[in-house]
């Protein structure tokens, strides 16, 4: 009887340990002495050769020493869109390249971290698909580097689905509504038109469109030197560059974004409150820019 009790205690302790294990938002693949464009070409090549889909790339803050490559895979796209509450945000993964002196550090967003955060209670439903994706991604990147070191802070695995930075801070389930349109098609046309015009000094980095489901995700570079990436990234940390770009998600007639106080904290979970306060205006600045992308221009209004 004593042995049985001890076994149960050990099992519970083991289960608690697994559930409370911290997961980091990024994984460092390794470092390279090649220049950033050569490394970028290598990444694009191995992703293409292993059936991943390249969605786009750009230089955040317009800095040549920073680059992000966005990619996905059909099985992931098809799974995450089934999660009705903005699950499509989990379709895009990013490789971040940071060049300091003559060394480029290569990292990528950790699938296990972001699937848990964005899909929450639906994570377990597609876990085998996600596990295959995670494993295939590591195998693909082994051609480029062999470190695979988690970094960027950590959040307990079972806390990610209800993650928030501090008490009274927003959750995933507290999005910011950017606009309500008369139809999905109108929303699509307005956002695409504004992005084409680079309204608010923005850049369309990628788009994922699910026509049948009436869902679209836009990855938006924030180019304003005083309020955009050039302002906040040096303060909170360019090593987390794979956090960018920011997203708008259009679902049916409604365009939303993740609240800045949630989205930035999720991607920089080790931020101190003191550092967070230095970019206190940033969540509002981003909201203003993305709302601008969802507003009808005067020409659009006249044509209606």
Structure description:
This protein has helices spanning 2-19, 36-49, 74-80, 111-119, 127-141, 184-196, 229-236, 260-267, 273-278, 282-293, 298-303; strands at 22-23, 26-32, 53-58, 66-72, 93-100, 103-109, 149-151, 155-156, 176-180, 202-210, 215-222, 246-251, 254-257. It is of the alpha+beta class. A hairpin with a 2-residue loop joins β5 (93-100) and β6 (103-109). The model is unreliable at 1-19 (pLDDT under 50).
Strand content: 15-25%
The largest pleated sheet is described as: 6 strands, antiparallel
Rounded to the nearest angstrom, the radius of gyration is 20 Å
If helices are DSSP runs of H or I spanning 4 or more residues, what is the number of helices?
A: 11
Q: What share of the residues lie within helices?
A: 25-40%
């Amino acid at each position: 009887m004593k042995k049985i009790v001890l076994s149960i205690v050990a099992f519970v302790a083991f289960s608690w340990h697994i559930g409370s294990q911290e997961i980091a938002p990024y994984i460092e693949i390794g470092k390279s002495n090649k220049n950033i464009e050569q490394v970028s070409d290598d990444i694009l090549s191995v992703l293409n050769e292993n059936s991943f889909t390249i969605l786009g790339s750009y230089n955040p803050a317009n800095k040549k020493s920073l680059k992000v490559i966005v990619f996905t895979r059909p099985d992931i796209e098809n799974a995450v869109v089934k999660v009705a509450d903005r699950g499509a945000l989990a379709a895009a993964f990013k490789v971040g390249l940071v060049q300091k002196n003559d060394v480029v550090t290569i990292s990528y967003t950790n699938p296990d971290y972001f699937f848990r955060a964005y899909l929450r209670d639906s994570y377990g439903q597609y876990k085998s698909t996600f596990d295959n994706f995670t494993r295939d991604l590591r195998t693909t990147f082994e051609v480029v580097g062999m470190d695979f070191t988690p970094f960027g802070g950590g959040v307990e695995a079972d806390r990610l689905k209800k993650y928030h930075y501090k008490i009274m801070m927003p959750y995933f389930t507290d999005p910011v509504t950017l606009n309500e349109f008369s139809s999905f098609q109108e929303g699509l046309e307005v956002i695409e038109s504004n992005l084409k015009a680079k309204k608010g000094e923005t850049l369309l980095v990628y788009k994922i469109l699910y026509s049948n489901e009436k869902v679209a995700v836009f990855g938006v570079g924030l180019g304003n030197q005083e309020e955009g990436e050039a302002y906040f990234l040096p303060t909170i940390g360019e090593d987390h560059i794979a956090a960018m770009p920011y997203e708008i998600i259009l679902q049916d007639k409604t365009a939303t974004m993740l609240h800045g106080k949630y989205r930035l904290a999720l991607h920089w979970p080790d931020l101190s409150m003191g550092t967070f306060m230095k970019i206190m205006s940033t969540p509002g600045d981003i909201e203003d820019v993305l709302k601008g992308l969802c507003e009808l221009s005067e020409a659009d209004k006249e044509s209606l």
